[in-house]
Design a protein that fits this description.
The complex is a heterotrimer of chains A (279), B (257) and C (255).
Chain A (H helix, E strand, L loop, with lengths): L3 E9 L8 E8 L4 E5 L6 H8 L2 H4 L4 E8 L2 E2 L5 H4 L3 E4 L14 H11 L4 H15 L14 H13 L5 E5 L7 H16 L3 E5 L3 H7 L2 E6 L2 E6 L1 H5 L2 H5 L6 H11 L12 H9 L1
Parallel strand pairs in A: 3-8, 3-9, 6-7, 7-8
Antiparallel strand pairs in A: 1-2, 1-4, 4-5, 9-10
Chain B lengths: L13 H4 L2 H17 L4 H4 L1 H10 L3 H26 L6 E5 L2 E4 H27 L2 H10 L4 H30 L8 H32 L18 H24 L1
Antiparallel strand pairs in B: 1-2
Helix pairs in contact in B: 2-6, 2-10, 4-6, 5-6, 7-8, 8-9
Chain C lengths: L1 H26 L2 H5 L2 H24 L8 H10 L1 H18 L8 H16 L6 H27 L8 H9 L4 H30 L2 H4 L15 H27 L2
Classes of the chains: A alpha/beta (279), B mainly alpha (257), C mainly alpha (255).
């Protein structure tokens, strides 16, 4: 049985006219890395909130259908129980700083204090998590004194340290340079290989093609496409519907029309493009 | 505007090493007798306060604070009270309808001494105790964790907001707004000053609430603490003695009056 | 001495009332519903708003304090207990980082938040003129709570400018309590009405969706109506209240 199941999930925020998610059906296996793409307002963040339990527990409103993670139904759990299994990090890193702590080390320990992890284990886990995301040298700095990219790493680490079974990330690299982005994707890949299930909303399609196991495309609250990264990210449908696509894909598509791209499949990454054009 | 997070001075002293609760007990063992016991007592409490300042090795920062903050306030109060408090026989100075009498000066002196004791003892507590240490100790003793969150979060948000406010004030000034200009202009300038600041900070609330809930803020488990704050037997005995002293000062007060 | 023992009785009565109310709120579970995460996160922001605006106003040399806008805001959308807590912590934190002289006034700040919450609960925070009434009620409560503190801690004359009024009233033969009460009553309404109106303006600018996240967001549902007529009503109410304050109250507290 799949680790995460969404069965006919439809959700509408309070005081709004139309649903943000419509009839989403999805299964994710344990240790799978699923990427979510879609234009603005497609419902990507709502999907993240739904997986993390904030929809509907925090946002209220009406959710129909059923979300199951690790055999537990979201409708039957309370939010404080749910977050023990599902970790959420989102786009704006500044708002994810708790404010309750003066240093990065304390900030990372905040979640562990809340869930009652003993002091010695807490220190070990924080050290491990900092080593994993490469922020050891920030340990004694104030979280507010960091750059956007550094804050984003702290936000990700503060969730990783809690060792969730399902990790939900909503554009976790939006303020990072390519080096930072690569590191985050590598860390997430590594976590998936160790058995953590990952759902990640991301615009950077080239990185998705390199690291994710599967991609789903959302538009207007509906899942429009789902499958292997290279199939989904190169489909004509994405290009026609205002999704962000790789410049290598669009270049090769033009080239294919003029007969310059010989391969069947279009490329997403630079390497694939180079390889394809070399033929 | 004070953009520092707190008054805390990071040096090593016997006072710094006391348990935060013991220091809080010291503060109240000064303030309660100062206000609720005989007024004659308050001036004498300056002696233990000065001793504490030197034991805590915060004399430089304390006297700095005293000069800038405490002294102007209490001097002004002293003058006002000596002048305006009614009653008293022995007129020392006569200014029109107001008399400065021996009695009003004495009463002013006692009030000012109490204020001095109150402000000084809190100042020493804050100079020698890191706010997060104080809050973790109180949380460990049963203060709900949300209180610690509110206090420390405010200590971090406030300087940021003040910095933004100062930027805005500077920008308004460079556009020709003068704090000396007409009343209407100053009122009018308040709205564009404050609007973006307030709405910006309120909008952040929702995401921050989500972020901390995602990290177990509302968890019903028993919280633990990263920092271990020692509370040796010495501290416990000292707190016991302080409680006895405070009770003794009240008994003395009742007995004398 | 006499004054101080009077104060002790007064504080004891207030403390008992507070404890009873707290127990009632606690056992009816209303208090748990008010203190959700949104409330805990809003409180620090509200305190920062209090102190920052208070300082800007000081720089602009306006004849008001406006240092409790955030407190009133929390009182209205998160309930009286959250409002009271915001006020109290606001003064305690101002005492920690700005000036320890703020500490003794924390019961006044708490009363302001609680009053704003109670008034909003009975529907008096939904249009301009009702907000003016709320501001006036807050001023009365602030006066009643502040007067004994002013006398017990500061001997009736503190370092603020309005103490000059107290001094004059004392010279005209009024009692200390009467003089301080009158002074506060003259100084408070303008400030508290302005504070409430500004808090209302902030709420008016927030989306219904945002307000609905808070435990008592429905208290802030602005009533539709002619804003201009409401403004006129509000202004008339303010003028009447100030006239009342200046002419009626001194004669009530005389002697």
């Amino acid at each position: 049985m799949a680790f995460v199941t969404l069965h006919n999930v439809t959700y509408q925020y309070p005081l709004t006219q139309s649903p943000a998610l419509q009839e989403i059906n999805l299964k994710i296996n344990e240790g799978e890395f699923l990427a979510v793409v879609g234009p603005n307002g497609a419902g990507k963040s709502t999907l993240c909130y739904a997986l993390a339990g904030f929809v509907p527990h925090f946002f209220k409103g009406e959710l129909t259908g059923e979300i199951t993670v690790d055999g537990k139904k979201s409708s039957e759990a309370t939010l404080d129980e749910w977050v023990m299994n599902v970790g959420l990090a989102f786009q704006n890193p500044f708002n994810q700083i708790s404010g309750a702590k003066f240093t990065v080390f304390e900030e990372l320990a905040f979640g562990l204090e809340n869930i009652g992890i003993p002091r010695e284990e807490m220190k070990v886990r924080v050290e491990e998590a900092m080593a994993l995301t490469g922020i050891r040298e920030l340990a004694d700095r104030s979280p507010y004194s960091l750059s956007g990219g550094q804050q984003q790493r702290v936000a990700l680490t503060s969730i990783l340290v809690m060792k969730p079974k399902l990790l939900v990330l909503d554009e976790p690299t939006s303020q990072m340079d390519p080096i930072g982005t690569r590191e985050v994707f590598s860390v997430v890949r590594k976590m998936a290989e160790e058995g953590m299930t990952v759902v990640m909303v991301e615009h950077k399609v080239e990185w998705i093609a390199n690291f994710a196991d599967r991609v789903m495309a959302l538009k207007d609250g509906r899942m429009v496409l789902e499958g292997k990264p290279n199939e989904v990210l190169t489909s004509d449908m994405l290009a026609e519907n205002g999704f962000g696509i790789s410049r290598y894909t669009s270049t090769a598509r033009e080239a294919k029309k003029r007969g310059l791209w010989k391969k069947e499949n279009l490329p997403v990454t630079l390497d694939e493009a180079v390889e394809g054009f070399a033929k | 505007m004070n953009l520092n997070r707190s008054f805390f001075v990071p040096v090593n002293s016997p006072l710094h090493n006391l348990n935060p609760l013991t220091k809080l007990a010291l503060v109240f063992s000064m303030i309660l007798p100062a206000f609720l016991s005989l007024p004659q007592l308050a001036p004498f409490l300056a002696i233990p306060i000065l001793i504490a300042v030197f034991i805590g090795r915060v004399q430089k920062q304390y006297f700095n604070l005293l000069l800038k903050l405490v002294l102007p306030t209490i001097l002004f109060m002293f003058v006002m009270q000596s002048l305006f408090l009614p009653g008293g026989e022995t007129v020392i100075l006569n200014l029109g309808i107001f008399d400065v009498t021996r009695e009003s000066m004495q009463s002013a002196f006692y009030t000012v001494s109490r204020i001095f004791v109150m402000i000084s003892s809190f100042a020493i507590l804050l100079l020698t105790t890191h706010p997060s240490e104080l809050m973790s100790d109180l949380t460990r003793r049963g203060l709900p964790g949300q209180f610690a969150y509110v206090i420390i979060s405010t200590l971090q948000i406030l300087p940021q907001m003040q910095a933004k406010a100062q930027t805005i004030i500077a920008a308004q000034r460079s556009r020709g707004l003068d704090t000396e200009s007409s009343f209407r202009k100053r009122i009018g300038s308040l709205v564009p000053l404050v609007g973006p600041l307030v709405f910006g900070s309120l909008v952040e609330v929702e995401e921050r609430a989500i972020a901390i809930e995602a990290r177990g803020f509302t968890s019903k488990r028993v919280k633990t603490s990263l920092h271990e704050i020692p509370d040796p037997a010495f501290d416990k005995i000292l707190r016991g003695i302080l409680v006895i002293l405070v009770i003794a000062s009240f008994t003395l007060n009742l007995w004398l009056s | 001495m006499e004054v101080i023992s009077q104060n002790a009785v007064y504080f004891a009565v207030v403390a008992v009332i507070m404890i009873l109310l707290f127990a009632w709120a606690y056992f009816t579970k209303r208090i748990q519903k008010d203190f959700i995460t949104m409330t805990w996160v809003l409180i620090p922001v509200a305190i920062a708003i209090n102190l920052t605006i208070g300082q800007i106003v000081l720089v602009l040399k306006l004849p008001v304090y406006l240092d409790s806008i955030g407190t009133v805001l929390v009182g209205v959308i998160c309930g009286p207990w959250a409002g009271a807590l915001t006020g109290a912590l606001s003064n305690i934190i101002a005492g920690i980082i700005l000036d320890p002289g703020w500490f003794p006034w924390f019961p006044v700040a708490a009363a302001i938040g609680a009053t704003a919450g109670v008034m909003a609960n009975i529907g008096y925070f939904k249009n301009w003129w009702k907000v003016v009434v709320t501001g006036f009620v807050i001023a009365i409560v602030a006066t009643v709570v502040g007067t004994p503190i002013s006398i017990a801690i500061f001997g009736g004359i503190s370092a603020s400018g309005s103490s000059i009024i107290t001094a004059f009233l004392l010279e005209t033969g009024r009692s200390l309590v009467g003089a301080v009460l009158t002074t506060n009553f003259i100084a408070e309404p303008l400030d508290k009405i302005a504070t409430s109106l500004l808090a209302f303006a902030i709420i008016d600018g927030l989306s219904a969706r945002y307000l609905s996240r808070f435990p008592r967001g429905e208290n802030a549902a602005v009533e539709k109506g002619q804003k201009q007529t409401q403004m006129i009503i509000a202004l008339v109410v303010v003028v009447l209240l100030i006239l009342f304050g200046i002419f009626i109250l001194p004669s009530l507290t005389a002697g």
